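Q: Two folds, back to back.
A: First:
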Amino acid sequence: MSEYEKTGKVVVSALKADVHPQTARQYIEAGKSPVELQKTHTWRTRPDPLEKVWPKVAAMLGDAPELEAKTLFEHFLSVPDSGLDETHLRTFFRRVRQWRATEGPEQEVFFAQERQPGQLMQLDWTHARELNVTINGDPLDHLFCHCVLPYSNWQWATRSISESFLSLVTGFQAAIKQLGKCPPHLCTDNSSAATHEVEAMPGRSRGYNSEYLELCTHYDLTPLTINVGCPHEHGDVESSNRHLKRRLEQHLILRGSREFSSLEEYDRFVEGIIRSANARRQNRLTEELECMRELPVSELAEYREYHPVVSSQGLIRVRKHAYSVPSRLIGHTLRVELHEARLKVYLGREFLFELPRLRGDRGALVDFRHVIVPLLRKPGAFIKYRHREALYPSTNFRAAHDRLVSDHGERPGVIEYLQVLKLAAEVSVDAVELVLKDKLVVKGKWRAKDLRDALAPPVRKVIELPGLTPDLRAYDALLEQEVAHVG
């Protein structure tokens, strides 16, 4: 219409408006727009399949808007004479969607926030068991402690085994070590690693833990948390959790295998992917680094220290868990550094060994290598030993124990099995297990000595005598002496 007012030519105006000249002439003659000329669609082209049930559906949605369309459809589909069948599913879904848009309750609105460079880091944990990663054939159940800068989306993730304070310290310090600087604010959810219940404070259901406040004081951080049950307030890191795992999943597919030879190899794989993702965020990251503070000279210890006394059972107790140690340490006070995934054991300043850290509230980790020699001195203690299950390194060892007891009797069989364990401690569990598999399928009695001979056959000493090479000149000398004697 505006083009026609300029030119007064219908064909030219129609070409510029990209419509047919005849259609343009109708609009010009009527002096109305296409929307005004269009008739309101008030008739149906087919009978309404929801006519019988829709009033009841609308009433149920009004009483309980959280009801899902599929649940309602399956409910009325089972009602006799409802007039519904499986082909009406999409029609039903569209009608419910239309009702929610016109008569349903108001929905929650999310407001995008403007982020300032270098002011905030968000920290969260995300489970990664769905990646189905294996280490030497064993499934790896793990989490990532994920740190994200919302302004640049720079990220860093550290593998952990739980949402503990030690994993928080390790993950946060690993992230700021990569940055070389520290933001002034750290935001977490209401994880027990950072907060705890505070009943005496009205209007605030959780307060900060003393250890977490110590971390914030050391790095001059202002701690921030989101409201309880509002994960969308932590949206940047929550979204990055999903993107991180999607990126890892894609690279695992490209790699062609989810098997890794060690945890260190897997950590290098994850680190390489994160560095590649961060490489595209350097421009905005530079803006953030300019606004951040320098790091303090020292780091916080990423462990907690304990001083347990080795009991007469050869056990130490750390955080409600029992761990076995060599019997020669009974009575000594050890120094134990409790890290996120392991324990480092010291006698004074001398480092002794590492132990894997147990999960859960209570438990015991007994290494048969620590108790096998004392058990051989007291084999009767094996039958009712509290931690006897730990003395079966695998199902094949358990089957070997049952077989030996069945063939030789309870006490002799136990002694034979303890000798098998001693052999495993001297050689290796895998080497002994290979021989055990062969022995278990063969009929007839066998002993631990047979396994030892199969692994290391006894060496027979062969005495090698030097070869006799007589010197004939000695005989000439004898003859001369004999002739002289006769003369």
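A: Second:
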Amino acid sequence: MEDTKVVYAFNLLTGEYEGPKTLDNTDRSPISGAWQIPCNMIEVAPPEIQEGHKWLWDGTQWIIKEVEKPKEPEIPEATHAPEKPSQAPSLSERIAALEDAVNTLMEGAATNG
């Protein structure tokens, strides 16, 4: 009887190949001795992969998919001088805004309660 067994793991949500895993005797049924292979692993090895591609398990076979390359962000051309950052509100302006918000909430609670 084999002491270990190599299986091939994939992501249950995406199907993406995660690599080989080695099962040992703790992965055998204590009654029959049969291998108990987790649901995200299979015995079928994926073929060799080309760079820029990945393997996905579709439930019956491995399919190859090209890896999407991340798009480089476009850098807008400067057409004018950068704007000055806006000045943060003063402490008294922030307190007034908080008081307005609390009063609005309290009025709503009084009419709904």
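Q: And?
A: The chain has one helix and five strands.
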